[in-house]
Amino acid sequence: MNARIEDYALIGDEQTAALVGRDGSIDWLCLPRFDSGACFARLLGDEHHGHWRIAPEGAGTCARRAYRSDTLVLDTEWETGDGTVRVTDLMPQRDRAPDVVRIVEGVRGRATVRSTLRLRFDYGSIMPWVRRLDGHRVAVAGPDSVWLRAEPPVRTWGEDFCTHSEFTLAEGERVAFVLTWHPSHEPRPPLIDPYEALESSVTDWRRWARQCRYDGPYRNAVVRSLITLKALTYAPTGGIVAAATTSLPEKPGGVRNWDYRYCWLRDSTLALGALLAAGYQEEAQAWRDWLLRAVAGDPADLQIMYGVAGERRLSETELPWLPGFAGSTPVRTGNGAVDQFQLDVYGEVMDTLSLARGADLPTLPHMWALQCVLMRFLQTAWRQPDEGLWEVRGGRRHFVHSKVMAWVAADRAVRTLEQHQETLGDLEDWRALRDEIHREVCEKGFDAERNTFTQYYGSRELDAALLLIPRVGFLPPDDPRVTGTIDAIRDDLGHGGFVRRYDTEAPGGSVIDGLPSGEGAFLACSFWLADALHRTGRTQEARELFDRLVGLCNDVGLLAEEYDPAGDRQLGNFPQAFSHIGLVNTALTLFGGDQAG
């Protein structure tokens, strides 16, 4: 099977997504939503856990592949001794049912092509019953039904609990496969025309990409990142999932394997800023509206993440039948961090809504009332220890970044009242709160001996999240405490020229997160370092770092969560929204100027 995370490309329909390997195999696909059970789970196991490969007979990995410019339509080509074959993969915008379209075309000479489809529902654990019906192969198990057809029909047979097809193509000849999911108790959905779907998908994606206002250096990387964020958006609600996958490891063979198919509040301000600055007002408003619906309720119950429609119960479960990517177990669905208390999310919500108001997104009548309720809760809750931005599982602490974000919440509330005098609120109380938090953080969260802020009160450890201090306005960029923190983080958390989140290398494992040691450089944090360097006047260093970061993108422009400099490989769930948000925001910071909003 594919041995590297970066061997994969993404296709999707803004409700779910699939990963396609260099060998032409779709090894991951959850239907009908991002967080549904996978019908192809080879990514986390082997071929017996479900996949769909189309490639020339006897061929290995492809000769080349690329997205069609400014689209999510993927072309993969193989060179054989007899000819050249291209497979075009896409998931068209759905009407009712999700479709995967795979168009196989002879480019040169003649070549024999084989399709091997092995459907296994519920993450590879359920083998469906397959039958012929109306020119289709129909697979059914419980609530799931998948229909496969080829246009024109080709020789197809069942063997070894798979559906096989084989055919020969000459130059200019094409065969299109369409795989459609729908609930097994419902009639088959209307058929789509695969060639019309290809044409409309290319047109729609390019029309969307043209909205991008950024026209500076690295524009292709910025547009690819924006397309990836769009692909990770659940269109019915506007929620943006952190990644399309679960349990891709932060260390091969390790246990840091988490489910990222949910929407994190930590992403909210950075995601909204990227969308607004790049010119995507509609997507920004949809994300803002999703956020307001998700967090509605008792502020004491605010979660760090929610499902794509705002679901709150995301119980963590292990799937013991899957051996994991590169033997990394356990494989998990759901995420136990949903039950953690993270103080920073209050700041992120307040900052996001402040940013939305400043960008003149339509104001909803209940928005300020919700913010006032959050602030009243925060007036006492900010004193509590929490699990922090990184969802540590080693016990609560007074994390400095969390306290800084509590300050951000108070600051944005004060600014709103000062700028909109018709708005009612506890201005003096919130000013006093802002000042009190600031004073305490500077007293208890700063190591004067080393001239750096620390990960939590009284500690000597560092945290890359502290690079955000100048970005959120807690201290000005030229404050010696800011430059000292940047230098300390680069020196102590530097990893192959990039940045780790915090120290996970303690003997016997990290005390902070309660897990065995080891993870890669965190790409979002490395983009934050570039931002911080630029803000403190070291723009040339920042641009050099940004150039190296963009160079980590795989051949189709995608980034995972982390990078391992020693192994020269990507790590963690893929593609990662947080990394691509970082790429967009840093490009806008370094090169935007008058060229972007």
TrEMBL record:
Catalyses which reaction(s): alpha,alpha-trehalose + H2O = alpha-D-glucose + beta-D-glucose
GO terms under biological process: trehalose catabolic process
Keyword presence, Hydrolase: yes
Domain of life according to the entry: Bacteria
Molecular function terms from GO: alpha,alpha-trehalase activity
Cofactors (names): phosphate
Short name of any one Pfam family annotated for the protein: Glyco_hydro_15
Domain (Trehalase-like N-terminal): residue spans on this chain: 3-138
Keyword hit for Cytoplasm: no
Pathway noted in the entry: Glycan degradation; trehalose degradation; D-glucose from alpha,alpha-trehalose: step 1/1
Domain GH15-like: from-to ranges: 216-587
EC code: 3.2.1.28
InterPro entries reported for this sequence: 6-hairpin_glycosidase_sf, 6hp_glycosidase-like_sf, GH15-like, Trehalase-like_N
Keywords assigned by UniProt, alphabetized: Carbohydrate metabolism, Glycosidase, Hydrolase
Assigned protein family: Belongs to the glycosyl hydrolase 15 family.
Protein name per its UniProtKB record: Trehalase
Source organism of the structure: Streptomyces pluripotens
